[in-house]
């Protein structure tokens, strides 16, 4: 089987008003993502999704489209979509980084493989090690006090047992927000705080110590991207476990985090890591060194979320029972691009055992919402 063509579709979908996100990176009110369609000489096609966010990964929907159309597609046409490592090497020959653009092509090739074999992608990754229904946490944005209180109340009523609170802005306001969520949630639910690289080590340590009575269990990305010494200093100085996310895009980053003893958990996902296979390599490397993994989010649509779920189902060291991930992206948006949207009910997202990624794209919806 050979790749014969790649089509790209830049699409815009607004977020539901109640789920618009605010963090140290700013406000997220709509998603501009790139849908990729990979065609083969066998008549089987696969779909992928580049969940680009300029303030986070540096990639834009227009840059990703140009990169795929002008650089990556010409490089991979003629390759066998079953040869994932060969695909990775070929894309690396023509450009570095651009993780989300590369991941869209790679996940589409997994989709093709699954359809050709009549198997879901998680079976191609080694088989299911956990149920197809996955419990998630929910992220509460850096909202003002009253909205924070309202969202926390709603999420507890919906059955969420782990709440993540965005911090990394003004420490006094962040601390007040975390206290409100703990007050509303009571002592039972687990709590995570996420600074999205917004604080330096001293600020992160001081804020965390001030929140000791709130029983925060996990501090996600407390310090800036690339500063391994800073995140290690925070880890040595606070009681909660530390999770790296925004600074771990590839295996080299994971190795540096582990070498510097900078984290207890690494957050991975296919878009950020350049594909499903690259994420799996990081998860397995972390397992060899006693570091747990969880799964993050860029508010993916159904294709990207399905890729995350198949990976989660197949990887034992994605310890989502202990460190729930964010795999609820489709539910943030006003409508779906899929004819068969993923099942998302409160904190539970469920995939099927249909071949490939199991997502049938509604191309009419795509074409109506092109940028």
Give structural attributes.
about 375 residues; alpha/beta; Enolase-like, domain 1; TIM Barrel; 2 domains; seven-stranded parallel β-sheet; three-stranded antiparallel β-sheet; 14 helices; 15 strands; globular
Structure report:
This protein has 371 residues and is α/β, with parallel strands linked by helices. The protein is 40% helix and 19% strand. It folds into two domains: 3-118 and 363-368, 2-Layer Sandwich (Enolase-like, domain 1); 124-350, Alpha-Beta Barrel (TIM Barrel), CATH 3.20.20. The strands form four sheets. It has a seven-stranded parallel β-sheet with strand order 7-8-9-10-11-12-13. α1 (61-76) packs across α2 (84-94), α2 runs antiparallel to α3 (99-117) and α5 runs parallel beside α6 (171-185).
Low-confidence runs (pLDDT<50, min 5 residues)?
none
CATH superfamily assignment of the largest domain?
Answer: Enolase-like C-terminal domain
**DSSP helical segment count:** 14
CATH architecture of the largest domain: Alpha-Beta Barrel
The CATH class of the largest domain: Alpha Beta
**How many domains comprise the coordinates?**
2
How would you characterize the largest beta sheet?
7 strands, parallel
Task: Give the strand order of the largest sheet, numbering strands 1, 2, ... along the chain.
Answer: 7-8-9-10-11-12-13
**What helical percentage do the residues reach?**
25-40%
Tertiary shape: globular
Order of helices and strands: EEEEEHHHHEEHEHEHEHEHEHHEHHEEH
The CATH topology annotation of the largest domain reads as: TIM Barrel
Gyration radius from CA atoms, angstroms: 20 Å
- What percent strand? 15-25%
Q: What's the average pLDDT?
A: 97
Count of beta strands: 15
């Amino acid at each position: 089987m050979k790749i014969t063509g790649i089509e790209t579709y830049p699409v815009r979908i607004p977020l539901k008003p109640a789920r618009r996100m605010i963090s140290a990176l700013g406000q997220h009110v709509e998603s501009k993502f790139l849908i990729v369609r990979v065609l083969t000489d066998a008549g089987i096609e696969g779909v992928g999704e580049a969940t680009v966010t300029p303030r986070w990964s540096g990639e834009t929907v227009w840059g990703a489209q140009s990169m795929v159309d002008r650089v990556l597609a010409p490089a991979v046409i003629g390759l066998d979509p079953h040869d994932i490592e060969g695909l990775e090497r070929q894309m690396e020959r023509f450009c570095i980084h651009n993780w989300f653009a590369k991941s869209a092509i790679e996940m589409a090739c997994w989709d093709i493989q699954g359809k050709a074999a009549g198997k879901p992608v998680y079976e191609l990754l080694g088989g299911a090690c956990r149920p197809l229904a996955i419990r998630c946490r929910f992220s509460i944005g850096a909202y003002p006090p009253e909205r924070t209180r309202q969202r926390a109340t709603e999420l507890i009523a919906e059955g969420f047992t782990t709440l993540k609170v965005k911090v990394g802005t003004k420490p006094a306001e962040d601390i007040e927000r975390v206290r409100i969520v703990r007050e509303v949630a009571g002592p039972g639910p687990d709590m995570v705080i996420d600074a999205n690289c917004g604080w330096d080590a001293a600020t992160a340590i001081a804020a965390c110590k001030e929140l000791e009575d709130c029983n925060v269990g996990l501090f996600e990305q407390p310090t800036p991207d690339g500063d391994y010494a800073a995140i290690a200093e925070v880890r040595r100085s606070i009681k909660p476990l530390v999770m790296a996310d925004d600074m771990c895009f590839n295996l080299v980053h994971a190795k540096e985090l582990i070498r510097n003893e900078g984290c207890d958990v690494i957050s991975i996902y296919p878009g950020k890591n350049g594909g499903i296979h690259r994420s799996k390599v990081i998860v397995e490397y972390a397992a060899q060194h006693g570091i747990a993994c969880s799964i993050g989010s860029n508010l993916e649509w159904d294709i990207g979320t399905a890729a995350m779920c198949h990976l989660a189902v197949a990887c034992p060291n994605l310890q989502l029972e202990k460190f729930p991930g964010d795999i609820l992206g489709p539910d943030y948006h006003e409508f779906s691009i899929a004819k068969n949207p993923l099942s998302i009910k409160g904190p539970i997202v469920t995939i099927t055992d249909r071949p490939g990624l199991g997502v049938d794209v509604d191309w009419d919806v795509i074409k109506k919402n092109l940028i």
